[in-house]
Amino acid sequence: MVSLFKFAFFLFFYGFIANSAASRVIELSDRFLDIHKEGQWLVMMYAPWCAHCKRLDPVWAHVAQHLYATSIKVGRADCTRFTAIAHNFKIRGYPTILFLKGEQYYEYNGDRTKDEIVNFALRLNGPPVQEITKTHSFHTLKKDRDLYFLYVGDRSGLLWDLYHSTAHAFHPHAFFYQSHPVIVDKHAPVESTPVIFVYKENVHYNFTGHNSSEFNYINKTLHNWVNAERFSTFPKVTHGNIHQLYMTNKNLVLAVIEENAVENIASDMLEFREMVESIIRKKRDKYHQHFQFGWIANNDLANSIAMAQVSLPSLIVINTSTNHHYIPDDEPGKLTSDAIEIFLEHIRNDTAPKYGGKSILVKIYRMWFETKSTLYSMWNGNPVLTVILFGLPLLFLSLICWGTFCPDILDAGDDEEEEDTNNSHMKED
Ligand SMILES: *[C@@H]1O[C@H](CO)[C@@H](O)[C@H](O)[C@H]1NC(C)=O
Ligand SMILES: *[C@@H]1O[C@H](CO)[C@@H](O)[C@H](O)[C@H]1NC(C)=O
Ligand SMILES: *[C@@H]1O[C@H](CO)[C@@H](O)[C@H](O)[C@H]1NC(C)=O
Ligand SMILES: *[C@@H]1O[C@H](CO)[C@@H](O)[C@H](O)[C@H]1NC(C)=O
Ligand SMILES: *[C@@H]1O[C@H](CO)[C@@H](O)[C@H](O)[C@H]1NC(C)=O
C-alpha cells in the first residue's frame, strides 16, 4: 500500500506519463532514489552534452519498447541535473547503464546494441538459474537464445552447487537453465545425469571436466569452461566486448575487415571473413581449446591492438594472457586457410614472431600511439577546435618557456572528458 502510494506520488509529481506516451522511457529525477529498490529498473545515466549518450537514445527507446511487456521498467536520468543520483550510484562516466534489483545493482559493459542490452536485462530479471518444466519450452528457448547453459539433473549434489555458484558469477553475461532428462527429451544428448551443456549454433556441447571428485578442481574447470564458452564460435568483436574476450585466456584470432556505416561488407572482405571462419567451423576440435575466433569491422580497434595502421583485410592473433600479438608475414589478401593453420601452429609452438606485450616500453609506446590517433581523429573531425584546444595552451606554454627556464611540464594529459571516462571503463575491465 505504501509503495503504491509512493509510486502514485512519483507519477503525479514527475509526470512521466507525458514522456512515456512518446517513448516508453521514463524520465527520472532525484525522487527516483526513494523508489529505486522497488521492482526492477534498467536505467541509463546520461549527460546532455555527451555525444555517446545521444547516439544511445534511439537504441534506448527500442530497448524500452522491447521490455515494455516485462516487469522491468526502463528509465533514464540526467545526472547533470540530478546529481544526487549520480552520487548515489557513483557514476564516473556517461552513459552508464545500470540494472537495479532491490539492494543490488549491476553495470552494463557490453556493446550498446538493443539486443545485447535487452538480453542483459532479461538475464538479471530472473534468478541465476531458471528451471525448464515443459518439453515444448525448449523450442522457444532455442529460437530466442543464441547461447545458453543447461544443467540436466536434480538440484542437489556437488555439480549442482558449483553450477549454481558459477551461474551466479556469470549472471549478467549468460543464460543458465536447469531441467530433467524426461523434459529435455530429444532436445539435448543426455546420456547420464548430472550433465552440463552449452548450446550454441544449434548444437549442445557437454562439459567433460567433472571426472574428478575434488571440489576445487571441478569448480575451477567449470568456471573456466563457462567463461570461455559464453561466446559464440565466430562473434563480431567490438570495443564493447573485447575486454570480456580477453578474459578467456585463449588466443584471439581476428579477421579484420571493413564494414560501411550501414553494415555492408564488400565481397572480397566477406570472402576473407568466411575463409577465416571456415577454419574454426571445420576444425573445432583442433582449435577450440586454445583459440577463440572472431572478426572486427573496426579499424581503430585493430590499429590500437597492432599499434600500427593495419591493412584491410588482415588477420591478427592476440595471446590474451601476455598481450602479445601476431601478424602473418604473407600478404593478407593472399592468405589461405592452410597458411593460417600453419601460422597458428607456429604460434602454439612459440616460433612465430610476436609483437607488443605488457612491458613498460610497450605501454609507453601504446600510450603515445593512442594519443597520436586521438589527436589525428580530432583534427580530422574539427581542425579549428583542435587548434584552439591544443594550439593555444601550447602557444602560452612556449611563451612562458621562452622567458623562464622550462621544467618538464609538457607531459600533462589533456584528454577530452568523454574519451577519458571511456578509457577508464576499458582499463578497469
Ligand atoms: C559428453 O560428450 C562426449 C563426447 O560427445 C560423450 O562421449 C560423453 O558420453 C558425453 N557425456 C555425457 C555425460 O553425456
Ligand atoms: C579429467 O580428464 C582430463 C581429460 O580427459 C584429464 O586431463 C584430467 O587429468 C582428468 N582429471 C582427473 C582428476 O582425472
Ligand atoms: C570457484 O572458482 C571461482 C574462480 O576461480 C572463485 O571465484 C569462486 O569463489 C569459487 N567458488 C567456490 C564455491 O569455491
Ligand atoms: C600465451 O603465451 C604464453 C607465454 O608464451 C603461453 O604460455 C600461453 O600458452 C599462450 N596462450 C595461449 C592460449 O596459447
Ligand atoms: C612449429 O610448428 C611448425 C608448423 O607446424 C613446424 O614447421 C615447426 O617445425 C614447429 N617448430 C617447433 C620448434 O616445434
UniProtKB/TrEMBL annotation:
Gene3D superfamilies: Glutaredoxin
Membrane topology: Single-pass membrane protein
Matching InterPro entries: PDI_TMX3, Thioredoxin-like_sf, Thioredoxin_CS, Thioredoxin_domain
Transmembrane segments: 384-405
Keyword Lipid biosynthesis: no
GO cellular component annotations of the record: endoplasmic reticulum membrane
Pfam family, one: Thioredoxin_6
Superkingdom as given in the UniProt entry: Eukaryota
Keywords: Membrane, Signal, Transmembrane, Transmembrane helix
Keyword Metal-binding: no
Signal peptide stretch: 1-22
Domain Thioredoxin per the UniProt entry, residue ranges: 7-126
Subcellular location as annotated: Endoplasmic reticulum membrane
PANTHER family noted in UniProt: PROTEIN DISULFIDE-ISOMERASE TMX3 (PTHR46426)
The protein's role, per its UniProt record: Probable disulfide isomerase, which participates in the folding of proteins containing disulfide bonds. May act as a dithiol oxidase. Acts as a regulator of endoplasmic reticulum-mitochondria contact sites via its ability to regulate redox signals.
Protein name: Thioredoxin domain-containing protein
Organism: Microctonus aethiopoides
